[in-house]
Design brief:
The protein has five helices and no strands. It is an all-alpha fold.
Length: 116
């Protein structure tokens, strides 16, 4: 038996060319099958990830709302608290500059500037 440089036996191709073609077809069929199922496997993987992460939306959404509430506009605060929110009566912006929202100036329960 002949041995290559690495000490392993040399791979011999089948003597019949038809069986070599059959083996080539089998290899290509396997490659095509794996690439054809790639999208299905990838989507199933993402499905698994999202089903495990989805329950975290219940504590995460109120937590994000809690920590970002100060950045929201007064209109959004009123909307997302179902009408409960009112701007503070005492505010650091005692002159009611133009930077205050129209909601605070005109539409709050106790508007800062009585323009009405």
């Amino acid at each position: 038996s002949s041995r290559g440089l690495s000490g392993s036996r040399a791979v011999s191709l089948p003597a019949n060319p038809h069986s070599a073609r059959a083996m080539t077809k089998a290899v290509y069929f396997k490659l095509w099958a794996t690439t054809a199922n790639w999208t299905q496997r990838k989507n199933y993987g993402w499905y698994q990830v999202w089903t495990r992460l989805a329950p975290w939306a219940f504590p995460l959404a109120p937590g994000v709302a809690w920590y970002t509430f100060g950045w929201w506009s007064d209109e959004w605060k009123k909307t997302l608290t179902l009408g409960i929110y009112e701007p503070p009566l005492v505010h650091w912006d005692s002159n009611m500059t133009a930077m205050r929202s129209d909601f605070v100036k005109f539409h709050a329960q106790y508007p800062g500037i009585p323009y009405k």
